[in-house]
Specification:
Strand order of the largest sheet: 4-5-6-3-8-11-10-9
CATH architecture: Beta Barrel
Mean pLDDT: 93
Number of helices: 5
Order of helices and strands: EEHHEEEEHHEEEEEEH
Structural class: alpha+beta
Oligomer: single chain
């Protein structure tokens, strides 16, 4: 399983993520160079995409899936996937604190090869949100995140698949919207899934932007340049 190198399996179905595992997944798989996923970050958290990949590998694909993110996971936290009412599954720690929940309906496919393809396609799309998607949205709304502490938080994600009998799913972005309410921004990113050229599903992801302030092109240019520099350094 491709997640083995990014997750530490413990006893009794428990697991955890180290800083190195999380940072490597963010950069190598999700193309995500947010500083909060750096090994030495004081505000470190495990990528939401890694939590999503973990629960999808465990629970499989379904026709309809609703994922909600409710907390940021630090390194070394012992976690487990718990079953709740109405088929809901959650990732929670030993104190019962929940970090992610998924409600699933319809047929199930547990093929790890297929799930890996879908996960890789999804997280690659997710990693492109900054700067390619978010910067034009912020400019259009004359609002921007704090360049000193850029905080972009996953809120939810929903997927509908016409069938889970897929062979080579590929995700394509369709629409992106930003709604600003004071210092908070809600981003909705819509996408479709194609399999062998045929549209087989759709979905949307919502992201929260906090501490918004008036858009300043110079600050954005600096932030994008630093982000691209981080990518170049990692590639080198």
């Amino acid at each position: 399983m491709f997640l083995n190198q990014y997750c530490t399996e413990l006893e009794a179905g428990h697991f955890s993520f180290s800083r190195q595992q999380s940072s490597t997944f963010a950069k190598q798989i999700a193309n995500d160079f947010n500083p909060i996923h750096d090994v030495d970050s004081k505000r470190f958290c495990v990528p939401g995409d890694l939590l999503f990949a973990k629960i999808l590998m465990s629970e499989g694909l379904h026709n309809d899936m609703q994922v909600n993110f409710s907390g940021m996971v630090s390194d070394g936290v012992e976690l487990e996937i718990q079953a709740q009412e109405n088929g809901r599954k959650v990732i929670a720690d030993g104190r019962g604190k929940e970090y992610l929940s998924i409600d699933s309906e319809g047929e199930q496919n547990l093929d790890p090869t297929l799930i890996e393809k879908l996960v890789r396609s999804y997280v690659a799309f997710s990693g492109e949100n900054f700067p390619h998607v978010l910067v034009p949205l912020m400019k259009d709304k004359n609002a921007m995140i704090n360049p000193a502490r850029p905080l972009v938080i996953y809120e939810s994600m929903s997927v509908h698949l016409d069938t889970v009998d897929l062979t080579d799913p590929v995700l394509e972005a369709t629409e992106a919207e930003l709604a600003v309410d004071g210092k908070r921004g809600n981003v909705t990113l819509s996408f479709i899934f194609k399999d062998n050229g045929k549209v087989v599903g759709k979905g949307k992801k919502t992201v929260v932007l906090s501490s918004l302030r008036e858009y300043q092109q110079d600050s954005i240019d600096t932030m994008v340049a630093e982000y691209n520099q981080r990518k170049a350094q990692f590639a080198a």
